[in-house]
Amino acid sequence: MISLISAVFVWSLSENTRYNNTVRQANQADSDRSAEKIVANVTARRLDDSKVSVNGTLQNEGPLSVQIMTLWVQNTNKATYAHKDSLGITLKSGSVTYLSGSTTTVSLVNSIGDNLDCWFISGRGNIIHINPLFGNPTININYSYPQYSTISNVSMGIGIIGFDFKAFRHFDTNLTTIPANGYNLGTLDGWSKIYSVVQGQYTIFHVTLTNYDPAGQTFHVNLYSNIYYIGAHSGTCKFNYYSVVNVTGTATTGFKLNPTYPVQYDLPYETPVDVFFAGTGLNGGSVDSGFIYPMNIDVYGTLGNDSYGQNVPFVNLLFR
Amino acid sequence: MKLMKTLNLLKNRRGVSAVISNLILIAAVIAVGFVVLVWSQTQSSNYTNLYGNAINSDTNQLRERLAFEYIHYNSTELKVYVMNSGTIGNVSIASVYVNSISYASPSLRLLSDNAQVSSLNATQEGYISISISPDLASGINYPIAVITGRGSSFVATFAT
Are A63 and A154 in contact (CB under 8 A)? Predict the structure, then answer.
């Protein structure tokens, strides 16, 4: 009898413990859900009468990894909506992911002038609205201004190539001559984010470009592409450039510079591509240090079957 | 004569021996004890079953979460898109309350392939379709409550 009572007592304690554990886990899950913080710097824009694309970046500013499950897009004018499930995007704390292309394109009937709204659903059940820095959550599809990016189209008169200011990096080799092929540049984490370089030093620039051609054609970057800047020395203009160069590898596994290898950069539609430029920046003569000079990313190549060139402006560099 | 025989029988009656009487008492105690033990075991078994079921029910309910992804009303039909964001599967929809009107056993389909299902597993997304009657007024925020098969209630609002 005593053993029976003891067994029931111990079993009751274990059940209570199980209940308490479940309460704690449920509270932890709620706490985790509250701690999620995703900044969605995205815009929804029309591709054609039946397709809408959501482009931009998702940044996890919270302490936990977040899984992005579903994208919802609503046409508020037509009261229609569409979704894209099984996105399969996992964002570690602090990481950023780029959204573009078919991954975030939905079939949604729309017309010029319609207003679009979009949001994401996380695995923990949070609704992620777009960054209010972009203004009203309802986006007019004639405009698209993701943070840090110049996303433009032909109708806006800026061009089809977008440049990601936040992804701009450079690598200082501490060399004054061209390195040999296979020069190790390390992972992108080791590259400098500072908009300041040392003139005369062989420097490699990491530039992320995105092709927003309305026709969806791939842009092939030509050898003539470069980063061009106009500086001054003792009151005289100096024209210098950094040439497009061959870099192999990835941002996470590490890059290798191959200065004499052929250059091959293809920019598929709405896919961010890392393009590299390198040089000493002294081919037109030294410039006065301690000044900021405007840089132009000059890309030239073929878009579909036609040639295409564009000057991507607005980068300034301090020359030390 | 008969009466005399009976009186003699009573006068000549002898008691049972001490051993027999002890055996009888022990047997009685064992029998009663056994009955009490069986009764106790039955009671404790009932108790553990009831308590265990209650704990299971409560913990399962605690682990249920439904997230509202989108609610769309088109003057005849209400579609409620939900995701099972809890840590337990087999979340069924018992009823939906819209503007205090109950709609029992609504149709539940998966978001991925529109297949009709009876419940959602963890992280599965689905939608509930309800034919709303009477029609909802335009431009008003309405409350909606989804009641699961385990009795959890999840509340949201939507604008028509």
Answer: no
pLDDT in tens, A247-294: 999 888 999 999 988 888 999 887 889 999 999 888 777 888 888 888
A38-144 is classed CATH 2.60.40.10: yes
Closest partner residue to A11 (CB to CB) among B48, B66, B83 is B48
B3 φ, ψ (degrees, to nearest 5): -65, -40
Based on the fold, state whether residues B70 and B34 are members of the same structural domain.
no
Strand-pair category, A306-319 with A196-197: parallel
Q: In whole angstroms, what is the distance from residue A153 CA to residue A239 CA?
A: 29
Give yes or no for residue A150 having a pLDDT over 50.
Answer: no
Burial of B2 (0-12, 13-18, 19+ CB in 10 A): exposed
- Do strands A226-233 and A236-244 pair parallel, antiparallel, or not at all (unpaired)? antiparallel
Among A168, A277, A182, which residue's Cα sits nearest to residue A222? Answer: A277
Count CA atoms within 13 Å of residue A51 on its CB side. 10
- The nearest alpha carbon in chain B to A86 belongs to B112
The backbone region for B31, taken as left when phi is positive above 0, alpha when psi lies in -120 to 50, beta otherwise, is alpha
**CA proximity to A264, closest of A272, A255, A251, A275:** A275
Interface of A with B in 232-261 (CB under 8 A): none
- If asked whether residues B147 and B121 sit together in one domain, one would say yes
Q: How far is CA A273 from CA A100, A114, A161, A164, B32, in A?
A: 12, 30, 11, 10, 86
Q: Which two tokens stand for residue B11?
A: 């006068």
Domain-wise residue ranges, chain A = 38-144, 161-319
CB-based contact B60:B98 (threshold 8 Å): no
B97 and B119 belong to one structural domain: yes
Query: What is the domain count for chain B?
Result: 2
**Average pLDDT over every residue of A109-132:** 84
Q: What is the ipTM of this complex?
A: 0.78
* Residue A103 sits at the chain B interface (C-beta within 8 Å): no
Alpha-carbon gap: B45 to the closest alpha carbon of chain A (Å): 9
| pLDDT band at residue B54 using 50, 70 and 90 as cut-offs | very high
Crossing angle of helices A2-35 and B18-62, in 10° steps, is: 0
- For chain A, give the longest Cα–Cα distance: 104
Q: Does B63 touch chain A (CB under 8 A)?
A: yes
Q: Are residues B110 and B126 in contact, defined by beta-carbon separation less than 8 angstroms?
A: yes
The alpha carbon of residue B59 is apart from the nearest alpha carbon of chain A, in Å, by 6
